[in-house]
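for the recovery benchmark. C-alpha cells below, seq after
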C-alpha cells in the first residue's frame, strides 16, 4: 500500500517548488491507488508565520490536489500538526537514550563556540561528532550521578544522536540512484532542543514511520539530510522509506536556484496565491491572481523536472496520473521558463467553455466578449484590457493606417454604411452588420475588402484587432454610428 506525504513548514507562503513537490506526491498516490497525507511540520517556533498553514491548504485546494488524510482532513494518525504531537517525539528520543544511541549534551553556547574556534584554528571543519563529543559536556563524558543531578535540576540540555563510528550509510534514491556516505561525515545532530521541542530530523522520521510512509518525495535541498535520516531509521530498527529527491527549480536563465527576487525582476509570480506578509504588509503576487488557470499551472509544474518520454505536452490531470512515474524524474535542475507557463495558460484558456470564461469578464456582454477575444489572450483579464475600444471610443487613430487606408473610397462606403445603419430597424447583430456593409459597398461600387481596415480604424482607432462585425455588435448600433460619424468628421 503506497502512502506518501506532503510535509510543509508554515514559515511563509508556499514556494512554487513546494507546490511541485505536493503535485508529484499527489500524482504518485493517485497512480498507484495510494494515500496522500498532509502533515504540518511546525516544530520550529522561531520560524512560525501566522496564516501560512491556511495559505498552504488553500493553494493546494485551488490546484485540485486533494489529501486523503492529514491536517484539515483528519485520519487514523491524527493529529497531523507536529506541534500537537510533542509527547510522541519525547518518547522516541528517550528510547534512543535508553539504548545508548543518543545522549544528553549540556554544553553552553559559549562552550560550543570555543570548541568551533579550537577546531577552526586546527584547520578542521568544526563538528560535534565522534571525536569532539569526548571533549564536551555530555552524558558520555560526565559521571552518571552528575548527569542525573543536572537533569533533576533541569539544567539546560539537548539530546544528540550518537552517530556510530565507521559505518557506511547507503540508500537508493529513485532520482539520484545510490547515495553512499560514511558515518564519519555526519555530526551528532540535535534531536531534541533545549526548549523540549524536537528538531525537524527527529519529528520527520518518527512521523514518517508512524504514519507508515512508503515514499518520501521532497526537494533536493533535503538530500544532504537523507543519510542522517537513513541512520536514524537504522538506530530505531525501522525500515526506511523509498526516497526521491526532486531536482531544484532554477532561475529562468538556468543558473542558480529560483528565488522570490527572480520573480520580482522577471515580472512573474513564484507563489501559487497572492500573499500578504503579516508583519510588513507587503504583497507578493500569486499565479491565481495573475490569471493562471489551475489546470494550466498543474500541467506546467508537472513538466518542471519530469517528462512522459513523448512529444505530448498537454496533459489533463487524469493523463498526468496515468503517465507519471518516479523513474522519469530528471536529475538536472529544471529551468523555470515563464514563457512556457504562459503558453500553457493560453492553451487551456482556448479549451475552456465560453460560459466558464465569461465569469472572468465583468461586462453585460461577457459571453460575446469571450467569443471575440478568447483565442487572442494569455490571461482571462486580457479579454477586457486587450480590447479597450469595447468600453472607450477611440480619440486617436493609428497614424500609418490612417495615411494609407483612409481614402475617398473608404469615406464613401462608410458614409453609406452609416445611412443604411440608420435605416435598419431589425435586430443589430454581427450578421446584420456584415450584410449592411456588403450592400453599402455594392451601392458605392467599391470592393468591401478595400475599405475594411479603414472601417476598423474608425470603430476602434486601430489597424488590427478581433472580429470587426462582432465588435460592432457588442458596441451596439448607436455607438457604432457615433464612432463612424466622428471618424468621418475628424479623420
Ligand atoms: N518540513 C520540510 C519542508 O518544509 C519537509 C521536508 C520533507 O519532506 O522531509 O520542506
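predicted aa per position
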Amino acid at each position: 500500500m503506497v502512502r506518501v506525504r506532503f510535509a510543509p513548514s508554515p514559515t511563509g507562503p508556499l514556494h512554487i517548488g513546494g507546490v511541485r513537490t505536493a503535485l508529484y506526491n499527489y500524482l504518485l498516490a493517485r497512480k498507484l491507488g495510494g494515500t496522500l497525507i498532509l502533515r504540518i511540520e511546525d516544530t520550529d517556533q522561531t520560524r512560525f508565520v501566522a496564516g501560512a498553514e491556511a495559505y498552504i491548504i488553500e493553494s493546494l485546494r485551488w490546484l485540485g490536489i486533494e489529501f486523503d488524510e492529514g491536517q484539515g482532513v483528519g485520519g487514523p494518525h491524527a493529529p497531523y500538526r507536529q506541534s500537537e504531537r510533542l509527547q510522541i517525539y519525547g518518547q522516541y528520543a528517550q528510547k534512543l537514550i535508553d539504548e545508548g544511541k543518543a545522549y544528553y549534551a549540556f554544553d553552553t553556547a559559549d562552550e560550543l563556540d570555543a570548541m568551533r574556534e579550537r577546531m577552526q584554528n586546527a584547520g578542521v571543519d568544526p563538528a560535534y561528532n565522534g571525536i569532539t563529543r569526548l571533549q564536551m559536556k555530555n552524558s558520555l563524558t560526565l559521571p552518571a550521578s552528575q548527569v542525573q543531578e543536572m537533569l533533576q535540576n533541569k539544567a539546560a540540555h539537548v539530546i544528540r544522536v550518537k552517530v556510530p563510528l565507521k559505518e557506511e550509510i547507503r540508500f537508493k534514491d529513485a532520482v539520484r540512484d545510490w547515495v553512499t556516505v560514511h558515518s564519519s561525515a555526519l555530526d551528532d545532530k540535535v534531536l531534541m532542543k533545549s526548549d523540549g521541542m524536537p528538531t525537524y530530523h527527529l519529528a520527520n522520521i518518527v512521523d514518517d514511520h508512524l504514519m507508515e510512509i512508503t515514499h518520501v518525495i521532497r526537494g533536493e535541498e533535503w538530500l544532504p539530510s537523507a543519510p542522517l535520516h537513513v541512520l536514524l531509521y537504522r538506530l530505531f530498527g525501522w525500515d526506511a522509506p523509498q526516497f526521491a529527491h526532486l531536482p531544484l527549480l532554477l532561475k529562468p536563465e538556468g543558473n542558480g536556484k529560483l528565488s522570490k527576487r527572480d520573480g520580482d525582476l522577471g515580472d512573474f509570480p513564484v507563489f501559487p496565491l497572492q500573499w500578504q506578509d503579516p508583519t510588513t504588509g507587503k504583497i507578493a503576487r500569486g499565479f491565481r491572481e495573475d490569471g493562471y488557470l489551475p489546470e494550466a499551472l498543474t500541467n506546467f509544474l508537472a513538466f518542471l523536472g519530469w517528462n512522459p518520454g513523448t512529444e505530448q505536452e498537454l496533459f489533463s490531470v487524469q493523463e498526468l496520473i496515468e503517465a507519471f512515474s518516479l523513474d522519469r524524474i530528471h536529475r538536472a535542475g529544471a529551468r523555470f521558463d515563464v514563457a512556457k507557463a504562459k503558453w500553457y495558460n493560453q492553451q487551456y484558456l482556448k479549451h475552456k467553455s465560453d460560459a466558464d470564461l465569461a465569469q472572468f469578464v465583468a461586462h453585460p456582454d461577457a459571453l460575446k466578449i469571450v467569443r471575440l477575444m478568447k483565442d487572442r489572450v494569455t490571461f482571462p483579464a486580457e479579454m477586457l484590457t486587450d480590447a479597450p475600444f469595447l468600453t472607450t471610443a477611440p480619440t486617436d487613430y493609428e497614424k500609418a493606417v490612417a495615411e494609407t487606408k483612409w481614402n475617398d473610397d473608404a469615406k464613401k462606403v462608410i458614409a453609406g454604411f452609416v445611412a443604411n445603419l440608420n435605416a435598419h430597424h431589425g435586430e443589430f447583430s454581427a450578421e446584420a452588420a456584415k450584410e449592411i456593409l456588403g450592400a453599402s459597398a455594392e451601392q458605392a461600387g467599391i470592393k468591401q475588402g478595400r475599405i475594411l481596415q479603414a472601417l476598423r480604424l474608425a470603430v476602434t482607432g486601430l489597424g488590427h484587432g478581433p472580429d470587426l462585425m462582432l465588435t460592432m455588435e457588442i458596441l451596439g448600433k448607436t455607438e457604432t454610428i457615433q464612432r463612424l460619424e466622428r471618424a468621418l468628421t475628424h479623420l
